[in-house]
Amino acid sequence: MPMSFGPSPGPRQDLNGIQRKPLKATYKTSYITFKTYKSYLLTLLPSDDFQISTEGMWATATFSVTHLENLEWLGGRGYSMLGLYVHDIVHKSSSDSHSGNSAELKGDFLPVLFENMADLIITGREELGFSKVFATLDEKASSESSFVLSAGWEGTEFCRLTLNDLEENQMLILLFKVRFYTIRRKEMKAGKAEIVFTDLENGELDMAFPTLANIIKGLRGVKVVEVIRSGTQASES
């Protein structure tokens, strides 16, 4: 960041370094959680310290796209993000080199997160260390019963996520204990779901996506063997 001009504002703090309160922000998340080959997902992990804890040859992952609106730090504007989340990750590392004790962490692993605004990518990389890259993320022909997300670069699509036959699942009341306020969340369950990547190959793929071709190739290797669950979650005003 340009240090010559003082601290830079971001999503977690304002120009004066005061923590922001996301009370007015709204969101919509559309997702596909699926069964896939554990052996391939292991190739996406950064080191042997990371493992997938599921038994046998299968693992689960999620392609998720979230659109946020009314963000204070963006002057009331919003943005979208698309990520691959690998579940059931266990990380083991030596916490004390003298005693030989090891620390174990469990969670999800995010190989890549596409976002459609440079400001988010810069702050997320520097403050959080997330693997963020740019892509256009456009909703196409969405309705109450369907959702279509087109991800691309410079006018060319490389990924399309589609949810059809959406039906209301349930209405939940969530209590955020940190700030003691509630958000109503509307959930929709999809009857059909798929994610499709471009079929461009070799030189054509490299020319169409010169800075993303390696990532697209890697994501195409993540096979959706069986959709476990899919749908949308959205905050209710």
From TrEMBL:
InterPro entries: ADC_dom_sf. It comes from the Eukaryota. Gene3D superfamilies: Acetoacetate decarboxylase-like (2.40.400.10). This is Uncharacterized protein. It comes from Botryotinia convoluta.
